[in-house]
UniProtKB/TrEMBL annotation, chain A:
Record domain Oxidoreductase molybdopterin-binding: where: 115-258
Transmembrane segments: none
Gene3D superfamilies per UniProt: Oxidoreductase, molybdopterin-binding domain
Protein name: Molybdopterin-binding oxidoreductase
SUPFAM superfamilies given in the database record: Oxidoreductase molybdopterin-binding domain (SSF56524)
Domain of life: Bacteria
Length: 269, 235
């Protein structure tokens, strides 16, 4: 209103400084200005949308396949949310009776087929170049932690499920990996290296993050990532890597399967 | 004699029109997320009555594998949706426009009369100022719904960090259902809204772009005008 009034003043000064406009003239003038700006702003908005919708995809790297401006927003959102992030915030847990008997699994990437559990070793790459090779028996000797929580998939489904394993933080402490927690990220990959995730250290060290070897109090079946998988309740399911083969640490983002498909790298809840 | 009657302030017009493409994009990108796993059905006693979207729909629109894209757009435009909404609400409060918008104690009774009038059952519509009773209720509900979408959306977006919002929504699962039900609400509102705008005619539509209505005023007895003024004050 103010704008149109001001415009009216400008116009009337130039054109007819003395004559008062008739109502008809006022109406057509205001219509012209407001519909004109409506069309102009509408076209600009449409142009902006076309620009965004056809904007180039980001350069292939740790993340890929998202429109560059949208990736920038996802990364900004991550910064904002990581500012709010607190390891004091626990994921809600449920009584055992509520856990699903048949636990849903969506994908066999990196965990297809059977695995020789006897021969399987978890390889941990330390920052000094040293490699740890850990059998499943050694991991099962560590204090066991169970969690019954609502597993959330980016697809929009959720399911209460019951997992057992060792806390990632307990695992770190036991194998004297405290120095590695100074790094910003943990990377994990399947033995065949076909499936891999990168997780920020605070989320990895969250008290509810498990290296799980049990589901519903039984050893993991192959499709759930036998013999060892990640259960990270503060993240979407896409970060819960199945059949972990190796763990590494770095200050740059480790490669991440779903981030390469265009998803948010952080994927935190 | 034609008279210009001011109706919608500039900021209310802008936020209204800005909201339209934003909400369209939010619904579209939200559906890309929804379609990644289309589990919502309406079932009673184990019998499914409604299942949204038949298979041909998915095939025709090449829907699968666009989840990441849908999320990326959704998580950008959520900012615009929220900012635009806050701007509108803040302006409505500060400018005093809320007096024209919020339902008052007569609105619920009158809204029924408006509906009857719109359906051509009742001849006379109840007296109104800027908005009639039905509009007051519908437009206020839409604002409350927008706020609801924001709360349920944040609850789904970061359920651990915003766990109190999840609790407020009655749990993660319910928050998702609310979020989706509200979306259906917008679509229904939109349909009725557009039909009403068409029926209300050009003068009304123009006022949402230009801000004013043109009234053909006939010279009236002085007493009538005084009555009008007292009516307005009483409102």
């Amino acid at each position: 209103m103010k704008l149109t009034k001001r415009l009216n003043k400008v116009f009337s000064k130039k054109k007819a400084p003395k004559k008062e406009l008739t109502v008809e003239q006022k109406i057509s003038r205001r219509n012209f200005i407001s519909f004109g700006s409506f069309l102009a702003l509408g076209s600009a908005a449409y142009g902006g949308w076309r620009w965004l919708y056809t904007s180039p995809l980001e350069k292939k790297g740790i993340t890929a396949q998202a429109h560059a401006p949208l990736r920038a927003v996802l990364n900004t959102n991550e910064k904002i949310v990581r500012g709010l992030y607190s390891n004091q915030n626990l994921v809600k847990t449920y009584p055992k009776g509520m856990a699903a008997k048949t636990v849903r699994h969506n994908s066999d990437i990196g965990s297809a087929g059977l695995v020789d559990v006897e021969a399987w070793k978890l390889v941990v790459k330390k920052s000094n170049g040293e490699m740890l090779s850990i059998g499943i028996d050694e991991i099962m000797k560590l204090p066991k932690t169970e969690i019954i929580y609502d597993f959330k998939c980016v697809e929009g489904w959720d399911q209460i499920s019951h997992w057992g394993g060792v806390k990632f933080s307990d695992f770190i402490a036991h194998f004297k990996l405290d120095a590695e927690t100074a790094f910003e990220y943990v990377g994990m990959e399947t033995p065949d290296k076909k499936y891999y995730v990168g997780v920020d250290m605070p989320s990895a060290m969250h008290p509810q993050t498990l290296l799980a070897y049990e589901v519903n109090e039984k050893p993991l079946p192959p499709k759930h990532g036998a013999p060892l998988r990640l259960i990270i309740p503060v993240k979407y399911g896409i970060k819960n890597l199945k059949r972990i083969g190796s763990i590494n640490f770095s200050n740059t983002r480790p490669r991440d399967y779903w981030a390469e498909q265009g998803y948010d790298y952080y994927a935190g809840l | 004699m034609k008279v210009i009657k001011e109706k919608h302030p500039l900021l209310m017009r802008w936020t209204h029109w800005v909201n339209f493409p934003i909400l369209t994009i939010m619904i579209w990108s939200g559906l890309l997320i929804y379609w990644a796993n289309d589990t919502y059905t309406f079932s009673l006693f184990g019998v499914t009555f409604i299942r949204f979207f038949p298979q041909g729909f998915y095939d025709a629109l090449h829907i699968p594998k666009r989840l990441a894209e849908g999320m990326a757009f959704h998580f950008l435009f959520m900012w615009f949706f929220a900012l635009n909404g806050f701007l509108y609400v803040a302006y409505t409060i500060i400018s005093g426009q809320w007096r024209e918008l919020l339902p008052n104690r007569h609105s619920f009774k009158e809204a029924w009369q408006v509906v009857l009038h719109d359906l051509h059952i009742r001849k006379m519509a109840p007296p109104q100022n800027k908005y009639n009773a039905a509009q007051r209720i519908a437009y206020t509900a839409i604002i409350v719904m927008g706020f609801g979408s924001l709360i349920t959306g944040l609850a789904i977006y970061k359920p651990v960090q915003f766990n109190y919002l999840v609790w407020l929504c009655g749990g993660y699962h319910l928050a998702r259902i609310w979020h989706f039900v509200l979306t259906i609400g917008y679509v229904l509102f939109f349909l009725v809204h557009v039909v009403q705008v068409v029926l209300a005619g050009w003068n009304n539509f123009r006022s949402v772009i230009s801000g004013f209505e043109v009234i053909d005023e006939k010279p009236q007895p002085v007493i009538q005008i005084e009555n009008d003024e007292t009516n307005e004050k009483a409102e």
